[in-house]
């Protein structure tokens, strides 16, 4: 019985070792599959991080561009709003400089001239420039209100400026309204 018992024990050990080897191989196969799945997931996550990073950088660039655009638009709107004030100062000063006035009125007129000068200085510092109307008509900068025959002027020459035009950093914010020779 001892031989039989030893033989059974020996068979049992062999069977146990085979089972352990099979279990180890199965565990290793599962671990390899899990490792491969983890590597795939890691690659997917890296790709997602790269896409999210690129999207975020694009978002930041777009926001910076939009912010610049909003600031430019707000500046243009402000300058356009100030132009009628400037026009009224010019008209008032031009009309009253032609007339004789008392000392009090002359003092007031001098004050208004200083205000107009400061307003022009402020606008100049912000990039506002008056459109040159001493040249020939250019539809990019001038708006022709009328075409008049004038024997002393050549065709396309500006005869009279009805309303000054202005640029803001080389962008027309209001074209000059002019009368042009035929």
Notes on the structure:
With 182 residues, the protein is of the alpha+beta class. The chain has a domain at 128-182: Nucleotide Exchange Factor Grpe, Chain A, domain 2 (Roll), CATH 2.30.22.10. Helix content is 65%, strand content 16%. It has helices at residues 2-97, 103-125, and strands at 128-130, 142-148, 158-163, 166-168, 171-174, 176-181. Strands 1-4-5 form a three-stranded antiparallel β-sheet. The chain has a three-stranded mixed β-sheet with strand order 2-6-3, with no helix packed on it. Helix 1 packs antiparallel against helix 2 (103-125). It starts with a helix and ends with a strand. The model has no long low-confidence stretch (mean pLDDT 88).
